[in-house]
Specification:
6% strand; two-stranded antiparallel sheet; 109 residues; elongated; mainly alpha; single chain; 2 helices; 50% helix
């Protein structure tokens, strides 16, 4: 297999993995069944063959995809943080002793 083919397949795998992560970030539905573990971007070791300059345009395209996916994931992270902060917080209750600040988090209601 030529170095160009090896690197082209690697770039395709990187782009495909990034798109998969992006799709996971965009899913907004609450699952009805226990969710499968979120798949992180898999380890894709770089080929050991020399980089072919003919793939520079493709490399830049994949870098653009990675930047766009990073932006999407960060935006979803921020949206999720805002949504979580809007949820009601557990009330604290006064306690007679045992806590330095005089309150305890009521976790049993």
């Amino acid at each position: 297999m030529t170095p160009e083919r090896v690197w082209a397949e690697w770039l395709d795998a990187v782009e495909s993995a990034a798109r998969s992560v992006e799709q996971q970030a965009l899913v907004r539905d609450v699952p009805q069944q226990p969710a499968l573990p979120v798949q992180a971007m898999p380890a894709l070791p770089m080929p050991g063959t020399p980089w072919p300059p003919s793939l520079e345009a493709r490399r830049r395209e994949v870098l653009g995809t990675l930047a766009a996916v990073t932006e999407t994931v960060e935006r979803r992270r921020d949206e999720t943080a805002v949504a979580l902060n809007r949820l009601a917080h557990a009330p604290s209750r006064p306690v007679a002793s045992g806590y330095a600040n005089g309150v305890a988090l009521d976790v049993v209601g």
